[in-house]
Amino acid sequence: MLATKHEKLPLVAPPLEREIGMRVEAVAVDTDVLGTFTGDVPRPGPPLDTAVAKARLGLAATGATLGLASEGSVGPDPALPLVQSDHEIVVLVDDEAGLVIWERAESWDVVARSLSVEPGQDLDPFLAASGFPEHRLIVRPSAGPRTPVHKGIASLEELRVAVAACAAVAADGRARVENDLRAHACPSRRVVIAAAAARLATRVARRCPACGAPGWGQVELLLGIPCSACGTEVARPRAEVDGCVACDHRTTRPVPRPAAEADPSECPFCNA
Ligand SMILES: [Zn+2]
Ligand SMILES: [Zn+2]
Fold first, then answer.
1. What is the pTM of this model?
2. For residue 82, how many C-alpha atoms fall within 13 Å in the half-sphere facing its CB?
3. pLDDT, tens digit, for every residue of 156-179?
4. Which of 93, 231, 244, 247 is within CB 3.0–4.6 Å of 55 for a Cys-Cys bond?
């Protein structure tokens, strides 16, 4: 059961069907009550909580015990503020077994442009950069009133009408045109949702070596390898910790081919 209203079924269902034989059906629940990408309804809680809440909406609507949902966040990358990043989470909630299993995927290729325009302005450079029309657009007043909001725009005629309507009511006579980041309107998000779903399927297929519960996989990344010159710890991956979602079992394994020592050029002490 997949709680969605944005056509995510073809992204999420195939890997789960392939890896664990799960047959996924979409259920039409209004996940927008949990917050929307266009900012009409504020989002509660971190993305994982929102995804779990969405999955439970689907369970409540159908009486099923296995629920799937996905949640994404697009915005400036915390480490690289000029780059837009997309973080997608796909979660499986098993209310019979009391399990919540989730995986994520990230991308820095998501198309998320925004521009303030006036009616009649040449938009060709912006439209090329925003991946239009495969990536759809949203238009709203640039300043002043928050409505109207035109979503899912996929033609030049719709765009012209929306810009005129929004600019007409805006305090500054301009309209804001931006990428529509809802999953069905944003192909560069869809590939990331599909990647997160594939990782989830792999994870669900792996069982805890101690208790046999599904969902065994990485829960933590340990940082810290010594500088070869002075021994100061450098924040590079040392080991991954795998864990179970049902019991406390944990195992630690070195990251694939870990460097035993870090180069002094990466050392905070040697470069101070
Ligand atoms: Zn050093
Ligand atoms: Zn376990």
1. 0.84
2. 0
3. 999 999 999 999 999 999 999 999
4. 93
